[in-house]
Design a protein that fits this description.
The protein is built from six helices and five strands; from the N terminus they run H-H-H-E-E-E-H-E-E-H-H. By secondary structure, it is of the alpha+beta class.
Length: about 170
């Protein structure tokens, strides 16, 4: 039987992106409860400190503290609920409405060309905080992809979080 190490240098059709820094997300299975959850704590904080841009009756919108792109927003219900199908009709409706408004406001403020929208449901699906439902709204611009995160462990974010929060919050309809 051959040693698997002998195959390490054998070329194949697959390209690999090695991300050992992500191992902590795979190994750490702890999830916050409503007493330790950052999405439960944020609404009790000052909007500027919590990066909240808008509040509704059942849900709110805040900037992602670790954004993929400038203006990366999250829409969260106030209630500590993990899965979309466990959310109430009122929560689902407001999450959808806030998402639409966030898209319109972000487009007007940043002139983005498109969006990635999504919810990672459960740890297995890639949710960093799987215990509290949240929708991602990631603005995208033509040719905004780059290899900084891969080759230089660097994100190219042209604006500070506080500046982006202020611009979006100021443009949010009342």
């Amino acid at each position: 039987m051959e040693n698997s190490a002998d195959f390490a240098a054998v070329p194949d059709a697959f390209q690999r992106l090695w991300t050992p820094h992500r191992l902590v997300y795979v190994q750490d299975q702890t999830q916050p409860d409503e007493h330790t959850c950052p999405f439960c704590a944020a609404p009790g904080m000052d909007d500027e400190k919590a990066l909240i841009v808008a509040r509704g009756k059942h849900a709110y919108v805040l900037l992602n503290l670790f954004p993929y792109n400038s203006g990366h927003l999250l829409v969260c219900p106030y209630r500590h609920v993990a899965l979309y199908d466990d959310a109430t009709a009122d929560e689902v409706n407001e999450i959808a409405s806030l998402t639409q408004t966030a898209m319109r406001v972000t487009r007007s403020v940043s002139n983005c060309d498109g969006f990635n929208l999504g919810m990672n449901q459960g740890r297995i699906a890639g949710a960093g905080i799987a215990a509290h439902l949240h929708q991602h709204i990631v603005p995208r611009w033509a040719l905004d992809s780059n290899f900084f995160p891969i080759i230089a462990e660097t994100k190219a974010l042209p604006k500070l979080l506080g500046e982006v929060r202020r611009e979006i919050a100021d443009a949010w309809p009342t």
